Amino acid sequence: MKQSTKRSYTLSVGCVLAGLIALLALVSALWVPYAPDDTSGGRLTGPGAGHLLGTDKLGRDLFTQLMTGSRVAFEAGLGSVLIAAAVGVTLGVLAAFAQGWLDDTLSAFLDILIAFPTLLLAMLIVAAHSATLGSAVLAIGLAQSAVVGRLVRILVKRVLAQDYITAARTSGTSWPRIVAGHVLPNIWPTLVVNLALQFGLAVLAEAGLSYLGLGAPPPNASWGRMLQEAQATFTTAPAGALAPGILLVLLVIGVNLIADGLRDTLDPAARRRRA
C-alpha cells in the first residue's frame, strides 16, 4: 500500500508541475499580455501592475516572454519526441529482425550516433541549416532517435525470444501481425517511460541551442535565449534569469516525475522489484 501511495504521489506531483506549465503554454497560444516584440515597457523596469515580472533590457514584458517560451518548450519537446519515436522505433524494429551483417551494421550505426552527445549532434545539424525552431526540433529528434532505436532493438529481441512468438510463427501468423499484436503491446510501457524522459532532455537541448543562438529566432521567445540575454543584467534585474531558469527546472522535474510514476505503474517487473 505504501509503495502504491508513493507511486501515485510521484505521478500526481509530476502531472501538477508539468500541467501548470502546459496550461501556461496553452493560454499563451490564445492570449498574452503584450506582443512578444513590444518594447514600449521601458528597459529593465521592476515588477509592477503594468508588468507582473518587469521588463528585459529591450523593454519587453518578461511575463509575456515566459508564456511564449513555455509554448516553445512544449513544441520543441513534443516535436522532438515524435520524430525520435517515428525514426527510433522503425530503426529498432528493423535492427531486431535483421540477421548477420545487417544487424551488426544497424547496431553499430546506432552506437555511433549515441556516442555523440545529443546537444553536440543537434548543434552540427542546426549549424548546417538556418537557425529556426523547426531545425532545432528536427536536430534534437534525430539525435534522440538513436537512443530510442537501441532501446527498441533490445526490447523487441527480448520479445521475439519468447515461446509464444515461436508458437505464433508455427501457426502461420505473419510478421506484421506479430509486430502489431505481440511485439508493440509488450514494449510500449517501457517505451512510453523512455519517451517521457526524452521529452525533458529535448526541452533542455532546445534551451541550450537557443542559449547559443541556434534555436528559435526572435521575436519567438525561448527560455534559453532569455537566460542568455539576462546574464549581463543579472545583478540589477535578476528576474530575467531566475524566472525562465525556475520554469525550465520545474518542467524537467515534473516530466521526470511523470516518467518515474509511469514506470512504476506500467511496468509489472518494476512493481515487483519495488514491492
UniProtKB/TrEMBL annotation:
<keyword id="KW-0813">Transport</keyword>
<dbReference type="Pfam" id="PF00528">
    <property type="entry name" value="BPD_transp_1"/>
</dbReference>
<feature type="transmembrane region" description="Helical">
    <location>
        <begin position="133"/>
        <end position="152"/>
    </location>
</feature>
<feature type="transmembrane region" description="Helical">
    <location>
        <begin position="191"/>
        <end position="214"/>
    </location>
</feature>
<feature type="transmembrane region" description="Helical">
    <location>
        <begin position="76"/>
        <end position="97"/>
    </location>
</feature>
<keyword id="KW-1133">Transmembrane helix</keyword>
<feature type="transmembrane region" description="Helical">
    <location>
        <begin position="109"/>
        <end position="127"/>
    </location>
</feature>
<dbReference type="InterPro" id="IPR035906">
    <property type="entry name" value="MetI-like_sf"/>
</dbReference>
<dbReference type="InterPro" id="IPR050366">
    <property type="entry name" value="BP-dependent_transpt_permease"/>
</dbReference>
<keyword id="KW-1003">Cell membrane</keyword>
<comment type="similarity">
    <text>Belongs to the binding-protein-dependent transport system permease family.</text>
</comment>
<feature type="transmembrane region" description="Helical">
    <location>
        <begin position="234"/>
        <end position="259"/>
    </location>
</feature>
<feature type="domain" description="ABC transmembrane type-1">
    <location>
        <begin position="70"/>
        <end position="259"/>
    </location>
</feature>
<dbReference type="InterPro" id="IPR000515">
    <property type="entry name" value="MetI-like"/>
</dbReference>
<keyword id="KW-0812">Transmembrane</keyword>
<keyword id="KW-0472">Membrane</keyword>
<protein>
    <submittedName>
        <fullName>ABC transporter permease</fullName>
    </submittedName>
</protein>
